Amino acid sequence: MDSFQSKIAVVTGGGSGMGRELVYQLASKDCSVATCDVNEASVTDTVSRALVNAPAGVRVTGHVCDVSDEQQVGRFRDEVMEQHGVDHLDLVFNNAGISGGGSFITDTRKSWERTFGVDWWGVYYCTRAFLPLLMKSDDAILVNTSSINGFWASLGPGIPHTAYSTAKFAVKGFSEALIEDLRINAPHVKVAVVMPGHIGTDIVNNSRKIQGDVDPLDMTDVELEDSRRSLARTGLVNADTTLEEVRKTMEGFGDSFRDGAPLSAKGASEIILAAVLAGKWRILVGDDAKFLDEQVRLNPEAAYDYTGIGSEVAGSILPD
Question: What whole-number percentage of the chain has pLDDT above 70?
Answer without folding.
Answer: 88
